[in-house]
Amino acid sequence: MIRGIYTSTSGMLCEQARQDVIANNLANVDTTGFKKDIAVFRDKPSMQMHRIDDKRKFFGRELEIDMRPYIGKLGTGASVDEIRTIHTQGKLQKTDNNLDFAIVGEGMFAVDTEDGIRYTRAGNFKVGTNGYLVDAEGRNVMALKEPAVMNEGNILVDSKGEFALNASYVPVGEADKVDVNEAGQVFINGNPTHRLMVVKFDKPKYMRKIGYNLYATDDDRVGYGRFNDNTKIEQGMLEKSNVNIVREMVNMITVHRAYETNQRCITSEDSTLGRLISQVGSR
Asked: Where is the Flagellar basal-body/hook protein C-terminal domain (predicted)?
């Protein structure tokens, strides 16, 4: 009886975590380059159930056979295994701003933060007060100086998160004309100066969200950051989030109903347990 309460409680905790994830997705539906998350559950270890009134049969001192009929497995609940980020492509939105860039394909922009290099899909850049190309929060955008000859699979970031090539900032002035082609080459007033670092990691699912639309690569399982020839840069465009607001609202309703179901199970278990104690205990 108590086991049923624990099982339902674990279900409520899972649905609460799932609701938090969905709420965060909905809150970032208009965040540039945001990638939605999902809560992944796993079963807790199940128990093997047998009839308890049957006995074991002994054949000599060393051989013992369990004669109790096997009933089946009893689940003991669930728990949150991980919060997984879904790195699918978001829709592109035209802005006609020469400093807005959208990544089409795999990979992320590299930006320099106070805590080191971090990665983002948000390409809403601007000219910083320091005279360099920066993101919306003023973090310097990383690039390679031209001529930068890149081939498919070239390593840009090693397994320790360090740049394998010399990267630098992109100097740009307010009056400069900035053009970027599909390969990420930056032209300042018609002159090629840099190439934006768009890094594709071997296992992006291990990249960690740290807030502010940034990702960290402090997990060794992320692997190397490589150049991907199939990735394109679209200038004057921004990538929208990959959150489907209708689907998230449906998921929210599903979570609410699942939570209520587990809640009713606990109420039923508690009521049955109360009757058991009062009726059986009084005899």
From this structure: 235-278
Q: Can the peptide bond before residue 147 be classed as cis, meaning omega within 30 degrees of 0?
A: yes
Spatial distance between the Cα atoms of 257 and 235, rounded to a whole number of angstroms: 44
161, 208 Cβ separation under 8 angstroms: no
Helices 2-27 and 245-275 pack at an angle, to 10 degrees, of 160
Q: What is the pTM of this model?
A: 0.82
Joined together, the tokens standing for residue 213 give 């639309």
Largest CA distance in the chain: 96
For residues 87 and 200, the answer to whether their CB atoms sit within 8 Å is no
Q: Is 213 exposed, middle or buried (0-12, 13-18, 19+ CB in 10 A)?
A: buried
pLDDT tens-digit readout, 88-113: 999 999 999 999 999 999 999 999 99
The domain segmentation of the chain, as residue ranges, is 2-86+243-281, 95-239
Residue 282 CB burial class (10 angstroms; 0-12, 13-18, ≥19): exposed
Residue in 253, 273, 263, 248 with CA at minimum distance from that of residue 10: 263
Give the C-alpha separation, 113 to 100, whole Å: 20
By CB atoms closer than 10 A (0-12, 13-18, 19+), residue 1 is exposed
Distance CA 225, CA 110 (A): 11
How far is residue 256's CA from residue 260's CA, in Å, rounded to a whole number? 6
Average pLDDT, the chain: 88
Measured CA to CA, the distance from residue 109 to residue 198 in angstroms comes to 5
- For residues 120 and 108, is the Cβ–Cβ distance under 8 A? yes
Position 281 pLDDT exceeds 70:
no
The residue count of the chain comes to 283
